[in-house]
Recover the amino acids of this structure.
């Protein structure tokens, strides 16, 4: 099972961004650590080893450690990545780790994605805007399974923040919804349970924070750890907005 | 008063159970604050994969399903350890919960009318789903169920549910404080008034006073260290702070579930939906050992039974040896790439990302691993904690107790929503009927106590053990001696080792004294609670001299309904050196104890008539501190409808 490169047992060097805003003596800097590579070593294992054996003050975030919860996004050699599913064998011997840009820093590699995503979800109204209250005695409304699968596709975003961190606009324009926000809009727009109409959506999508703020670099599409089709999401939203104006 | 905030209802935990409970309370007009150690969408609920049990009966293989059948499956799955009234309430409300989630936007997989291809017990089967069911919520097969019942969204069901439920929390503007960890409950004279939380951004403490408090912190799998599917955040905080009260009992802590199919070596869950959709287990000789072991249910017996067969198979030398230990194979190749990349998409991703495998071509290395805590904060059917007015619990953190000694796959997601609805209603009613009459001196002294505990850690010096070494020692004891196969000698050894580990917590020192949240201090503050949870688990397992569900004793291999048809309760009185154990009746019995339909048929029969057993349920539970429920015990039973 183990691939050959994992069995070679390299000696890894880490350069990790350190800054603890709660510590008046702390200044932003890169700190070096060294570690022997083991088979299937993920950055989850590597960072915990560094914290437990070398520097117990190191801050980072993991929860599920299976690429589902979105806690552990960070810059891995300059690329926004989920640390838990990044295997060291896929990286060079020098591994540079920085916190995600575009989010408020909590400390070291830990950033505040929770506040950012809550605010974004509030601003785009990321919930089903239905017209009728739930009737516990009624059978569910049928839905075509292909449509259900299409909605699920967009619903798969785990709000890790990689697309925001990798976005040229989101880094200079904090109000921009980012690819995650646009994807969220598209997910509800295609859902027939959401009764918002073209006019309602136009306000959300065509604002300065919406789809037309994007300049089309599309790093988000390449970076997304869940491989969401963000290119198509952008095209879908622009098409919908144009059509709604022509009408 | 910057150290104190007040609200109507304080919900501890932002996963599915906590959030659904909060929604119910807010909808009833209560103000709610949710405290969560992570942003709520990162809660461990998101990691549930395969499905949510709800008897909608929408596809052909679900034909004839009903809450009655779901009730029966759940009680059998529990090995008769469940409270049958709670199992009833649960099964009745699960279909409503599934439909409510559809209303909230969950993209459930739907029934595709016409010819569908399935794999059932190793055979390719074609089934014509009728047009009148087109587009209704689809089901897949899961272990220990008579019907296809699990509603699902690919293998990301927990994620889809959590995002839908949290979208309602956002919509309702519910106040969620993420990176806030509860370190103590505030209580006086058997009345809970909220909790003290430590901020995981700054390390500062704060009291949250509330008329009602809900523990929804999930399970405590991390007492098994790395030998668990649980997220790093499942450290049993809620159970710990309840145990710390000295009054509130934890129920059935020895009932620990091991999931059969967990990826080797990374310890990541591979959903039961794989076997539900037709996947096989193979030994090293490519033999389907579950066919001989369980001719009827095969791979889809309950999790406790399948895990035991897998362990036995490896003990018999039929496992695959690797440097990371033995494993068996999960074979999904026959399901085909299209099925694997749609209905089991998350499994495909996990195999690719963590072990570089393609499940359409490669076998998946798996072995049983700790997965779920059936036990937890003991509550009555309203979710109200024993012995503590104003304290509630819901979801995996609670022992409600619909799972008894073994939870069926898909019943945990269903429990979070159903319990969130039911307990949320009780919480709102309780909060509306009471006033906040606590003095702030109590809250401030609780904050001071918490600060003193943190200060004590920071003030220690010398050459004591490190906190992570103690954590690892606890984990090794738990996996070696409090695992799938247990016996008296091993458990005695475990208790001795765990007592030692617990004592070492007081000698441990930190190596980092940095200000702020200080990750080492954050962990140190949980460590004593985790050591205590591990110890009460092992002691409960040692005391229970029978085998029931996931609790299997080699030296007492039979289920003993004469001596052990009861629930373990454990309290840790304040300042006591050891916990104290007591037992109560499991609840009213409608379905009499019998053979589950899988696993061993041998057992020791009850010696008292069921009517006599039932007659002493209320008194037996009241004597243990059960709070009066809104309706009397038994009001929700549907006697004999099975």
């Amino acid at each position: 099972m183990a691939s050959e490169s994992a069995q070679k047992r390299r000696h890894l060097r880490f350069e990790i961004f350190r800054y603890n805003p709660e510590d008046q003596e702390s200044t932003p800097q890169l700190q070096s650590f060294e570690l022997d590579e083991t088979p299937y070593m993920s950055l989850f294992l590597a960072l915990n080893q560094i914290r437990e054996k070398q520097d117990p003050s190191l801050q980072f975030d993991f929860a599920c450690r299976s690429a589902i919860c979105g806690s552990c996004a960070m810059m891995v050699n300059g690329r926004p990545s989920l640390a838990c599913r990044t295997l060291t064998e896929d990286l060079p011997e020098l591994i540079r780790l920085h916190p995600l840009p575009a989010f408020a820093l909590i400390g070291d590699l830990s950033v505040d994605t929770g506040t950012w995503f809550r605010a974004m979800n509030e601003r785009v109204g990321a919930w089903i805007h239905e017209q009728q209250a739930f009737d516990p005695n009624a059978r569910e409304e049928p839905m075509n399974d292909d449509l259900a699968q299409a909605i699920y596709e967009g619903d798969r975003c785990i709000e890790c923040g990689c697309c925001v961190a990798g976005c040229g606009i989101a880094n200079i324009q904090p109000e921009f919804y980012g690819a995650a926000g646009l994807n969220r809009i598209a997910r509800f727009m295609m859902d027939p349970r959401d009764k918002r109409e073209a006019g309602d959506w136009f306000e959300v999508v065509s604002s300065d924070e919406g789809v037309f703020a994007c300049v089309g670099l599309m790093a988000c599409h390449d970076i997304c750890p869940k491989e969401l089709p963000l290119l198509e999401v952008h095209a879908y939203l622009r098409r919908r907005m144009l059509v709604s104006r022509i009408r | 008063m910057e150290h104190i905030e007040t609200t109507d209802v304080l919900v501890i935990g932002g996963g599915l159970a906590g959030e659904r409970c909060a929604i119910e309370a807010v909808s009833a007009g209560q103000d709610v604050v949710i405290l969560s150690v992570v942003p709520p969408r990162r809660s461990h609920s998101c990691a549930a994969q395969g499905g949510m049990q709800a008897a909608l009966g929408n596809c052909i293989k679900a034909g004839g399903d009903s809450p009655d059948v779901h009730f029966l499956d759940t009680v059998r799955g529990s090995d008769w350890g469940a409270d049958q009234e709670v199992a009833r309430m649960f099964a009745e409300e699960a279909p409503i919960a599934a439909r409510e989630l559809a209303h909230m936007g969950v993209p459930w997989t739907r029934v595709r009318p016409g010819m569908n291809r399935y794999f059932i017990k190793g055979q390719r089967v074609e089934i014509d789903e009728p047009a009148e069911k087109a587009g209704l919520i689809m089901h897949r097969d899961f272990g220990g169920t008579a019907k296809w019942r699990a509603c699902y969204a690919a293998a990301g069901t927990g994620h889809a549910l959590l995002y839908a439920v949290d979208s309602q929390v956002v919509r309702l503007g519910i106040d969620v404080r993420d990176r806030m960890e509860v370190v103590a409950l505030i209580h006086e004279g058997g009345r809970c008034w909220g909790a003290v939380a430590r901020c995981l951004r700054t390390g500062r403490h704060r009291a949250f006073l509330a008329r009602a408090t809900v523990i929804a912190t999930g399970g405590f799998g991390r007492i098994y260290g790395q030998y668990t599917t649980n997220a790093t955040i499942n450290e049993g905080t809620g159970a710990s702070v309840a145990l710390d009260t000295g009054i509130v009992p934890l129920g059935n802590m020895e009932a620990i579930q091991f999931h059969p199919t967990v990826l080797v070596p990374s310890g990541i869950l591979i959903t039961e939906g794989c076997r539900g959709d037709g996947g096989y287990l193979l030994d090293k000789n490519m033999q389907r050992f579950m066919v001989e072991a369980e001719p009827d249910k095969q791979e889809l017996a309950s999790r406790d039974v399948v895990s035991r067969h897998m362990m036995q198979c490896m003990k018999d030398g039929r496992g695959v040896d690797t440097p990371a230990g033995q494993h068996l194979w999960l074979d999904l190749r026959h399901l085909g790439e299209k099925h694997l990349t749609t209905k089991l998409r998350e499994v495909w991703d996990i195999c690719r990302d963590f072990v570089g495998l393609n499940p359409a071509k490669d076998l998946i290395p798996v072995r049983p691993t700790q997965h779920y805590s059936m036990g937890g904060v003991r509550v009555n059917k309203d979710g109200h904690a024993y012995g503590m007015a104003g304290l509630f619990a819901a979801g995996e953190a609670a022992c409600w107790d619909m799972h008894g000694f073994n939870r069926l796959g898909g019943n945990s997601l269903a429990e979070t929503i159903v319990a969130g609805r039911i307990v949320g209603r009780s919480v709102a009613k309780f909060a509306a009927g009471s006033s906040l009459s606590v003095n702030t001196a109590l809250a401030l002294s609780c904050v001071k106590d918490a600060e003193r505990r943190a200060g004590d850690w920071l003030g220690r010096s010398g050459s004591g053990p490190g906190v992570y070494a103690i954590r690892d020692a606890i984990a090794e004891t738990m996996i070696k001696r409090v695992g799938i196969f247990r016996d008296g000698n091993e458990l005695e050894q475990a208790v001795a080792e765990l007592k030692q580990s617990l004592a070492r917590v007081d000698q441990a020192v930190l190596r980092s004294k940095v200000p702020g949240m200080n990750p080492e201090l954050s962990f140190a503050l949980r460590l004593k609670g985790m050591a205590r949870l591990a110890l009460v688990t092992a002691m409960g397992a040692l005391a229970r001299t029978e085998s029931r569900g996931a609790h299997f004793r080699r030296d007492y291999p039979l289920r003993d309904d004469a001596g052990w048809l009861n629930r373990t309760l454990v309290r840790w009185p304040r300042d006591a050196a050891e916990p104290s154990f007591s037992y109560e009746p499991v609840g009213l019995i409608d379905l009499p104890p019998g053979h589950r339909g899988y696993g061993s048929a041998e057992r020791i029969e009850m010696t008292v008539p069921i009517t006599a057993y039932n007659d002493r349920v209320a008194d037996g539970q009241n004597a243990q501190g059960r709070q009066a429920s809104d309706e009397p015990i038994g009001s929700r039973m549907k006697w004999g409808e099975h």
